[in-house]
Amino acid sequence: MAVLLVAELNGSSLATDLTAKTICAARQLGSVTALCASEGCEEAAEEAGRLDGVDKVLVASDGRYGHQLAEPTAELIVALSSEFEHIVGPASTSAQNILPRVAALLDVMMISDITAVIDDNTFERPIYAGNAIQTVQSIDHHKVITVRTASYDAVGEGTPAPVVAIEPVADPGSSSWVEDRVAASDRPELTSARAVVSGGRGVGSHDDFELIEKLADKLGAAVGASRAAVDSGFAPNDWQVGQTGKVVAPDLYVAIGISGAIQHLAGMKDSKIIVAINKDGEAPIFQVADYGLVADLFTAVPELIDKLD
Amino acid sequence: MKVLVPVKRVIDYNVKVRVRTDGSGVDLANVKMSMNPFDEIAVEEALRLRESGIASEIIAVSVGVRKAQLVLRTALAMGADRAIHIVTGDDPHVDVEPLAVAKILHRIVQQEQPGLVLMGKQAIDNDLNATGQMLAGLMACGQATFASELRVDDGQATATREVDGGLQVVQLTLPCVVTVDLRMNEPRYPSLPNIRKARRKPFAVHGPEDLGVDISPRLNILHTVEPPARKAGEILSTVDDLVAKLRDEAEVI
Ligand SMILES: Cc1cc2nc3c(=O)[nH]c(=O)nc-3n(C[C@H](O)[C@H](O)[C@H](O)COP(=O)(O)OP(=O)(O)OC[C@H]3O[C@@H](n4cnc5c(N)ncnc54)[C@H](O)[C@@H]3O)c2cc1C
Ligand SMILES: Nc1ncnc2c1ncn2[C@@H]1O[C@H](COP(=O)(O)O)[C@@H](O)[C@H]1O
């Protein structure tokens, strides 16, 4: 069976880690053709072609795909769909925006956020903030799927696959891009980092969040946040970890001043080692932590930063 | 301009779900159910659009069991003008799939001709995050998902979307579909007089067959299990202990 893999692009460049993890799931379903749709993405297409498990790359390099808007991108995918039984992307905000629209246009049910492939039609996916795992079997002619990348390892490099340019299709023109507000950072990305340090409401202010960032930099970690920390303006929205934020599974997750609500746990409880620092010994975060420290973060975190030298 | 707000009845977000040991699903008998939190935010945003003179009428719609009328009553008590309930039986364990919900909503859109559909980004029970995008596809209109800010004027909607890299601003021509994220607003509580008033507001009830929509599922749910539990770890007494454990036992630093 043939799989169309929607490669994740940030502007014109390939989001390699997310794409490589998605391929790990997609190649279990059949021969993988990767689609790179953006503007000026020829290089990204070559790079996608070097990922192990990709047999062919289709590149649609055109202004109308430059910001991955759902309306034109969905039209393009639908136009390509007849040759593919599976259409797969990461459960990123980009693919999760586009692929359900594709599913509706193909009159098939969307299968979001899978964590395991059982067979061509059968998948596991978490529901209720990860408090239950459902096994679902599709009866549709097309399976449109997003993959929880935290559940997969990135594929490495393999033999370069052929890259074929394709023509854009008509843009329905119902939406237009205005601007991106993206903060550049030298830190590792949340979803691919080996370690993540997250702060919650207990951190208390935007200024004090620097303490979290300092510890993260010491560990070479990405920075995360609870919803309460983001809502309070301590941290930007793209740092939110949880049911409705990012899902991460690093080797080390450090939760500081976070109580451990189920919605937060949904985004980090598959981390290998969890550390919790909280002054309330009854906080639910300690029920999932491998190592807990019942302490005031304003004394414990500076000391920790010191002792990591 | 009419605004259509689809609202779903789901398990209350504070309830700890219980997975049935026979693998048949999650226990929903006698648990507290509420309006999906994202949908409350969508209702609130619609109310603000009406208060600023942009929306003229707010129609709340729910697809679900008979008891789902309670979340529609809540939407009316918050200030929605009327409600449409598409009744799909009595068993709370049967979840109507987003494709079917989107088809039903599409029919209602064709009848009501709203300028805007405002809905949640995700239902916290099935966590599918799909219905709004599917509806926009069926309507062949623009979509702004995961929106945290919305402005509507001159036949256009400008939405700020929460995306993986930060924020993205898009502009859509009306009619369009906007799905809301958590930070768009703080939903209000219904006041007592408004709860009373809500009882007299128009409330239409139909079946999916009245709209000619087949709601049979496309996904067979084979079984539902609890995720593997994490074993409780240890509470350490000093930062030195923590550093030692991370270095020597976990070997992560
Ligand atoms: C639909 C929905 C979706 C949601 N999605 C998410 C999501 O994706 N991610 C998410 O995180 N949340 C999410 N939430 C919110 C979630 O329910 C919690 O409200 C949130 O996670 C709480 O954040 P917190 O732990 O930082 O704050 P709190 O629960 O207020 O906890 C703060 C903690 O800090 C500790 N503390 C305070 N001061 C100190 C100090 N000086 N030193 C040490 N410890 C201290 C306190 O003991 C407390 O345990 C969602 C909620 C809803 C309804
Ligand atoms: N049965 C339903 N009745 C009304 N609205 C629904 C229903 N199911 C989903 N929705 C809407 O679609 C949004 C996304 O749900 P989902 O795609 O299931 O995650 C919800 O926040 C609701 O606004």
CATH T-level fold name of the largest domain in chain A:
Rossmann fold
Whole-number radius of gyration of chain A? 20 Å
The CATH homologous superfamily of chain B corresponds to HUPs
What would the average pLDDT of chain A be, to the nearest integer? 97
- CA(first)-CA(last) distance of chain A: 53 Å
Placed side by side, the strands forming the largest sheet of chain B appear as 9-8-7-10-6-1-4-5-11
Order of helices and strands of chain A: EEEHEHEHEHEEEEEEEEHEHEHEEH
Give a verbal description of the structure.
The complex is a heterodimer of chains A (309) and B (253). With 309 residues, chain A is α/β, with parallel strands linked by helices. Chain A has two domains: 2-165, HUPs (Rossmann fold, 3-Layer(aba) Sandwich), CATH 3.40.50; 190-308, TPP-binding domain (Rossmann fold), CATH 3.40.50. Helices cover 24% and strands 30% of the residues of chain A. Chain A contains eight helices and 18 strands. In chain A, the strands form four sheets. In chain A, strands 7-11-6-1-4-5-12 form a seven-stranded parallel sheet, with helices on both faces. Chain A has a five-stranded parallel sheet with strand order 15-14-16-17-18. A three-stranded antiparallel sheet of chain A has the order 8-9-10, with no helix packed on it. In chain A, helix 3 (70-80) packs across helix 4 and helix 5 (209-219) packs parallel to helix 8 (297-307). The longest helix of chain A has 13 residues, at 93-105. Chain A is globular. The termini of chain A are far apart. Chain B has one domain (2-142, 188-249): Rossmann fold (3-Layer(aba) Sandwich), CATH 3.40.50. Chain B is α/β, with parallel strands linked by helices and 253 residues long. Chain B has helices at 37-51, 69-78, 98-112, 131-139, 192-198, 239-249; strands spanning 2-6, 9-11, 33-35, 57-64, 82-87, 116-120, 142-153, 156-163, 166-173, 176-180, 203-206, 219-225, 234-236. In chain B, 26% of the residues lie in helices and 30% in strands. In chain B, helix 2 (69-78) links the parallel strand 4 (57-64) and strand 5. The model of chain B has no long low-confidence stretch (mean pLDDT 97). Chains A and B meet through helix 3, helix 4, strand 7, strand 9 and strand 10 of A and helix 3, helix 4, strand 7, strand 8 and strand 9 of B. Bound molecules: flavin-adenine dinucleotide and adenosine monophosphate. Flavin-adenine dinucleotide sits between chains A (200-202, 226-229, 240-245, 257-259, 261, 263-264, 267, 278-280, 283, 296-298) and B (13, 37, 124, 182).
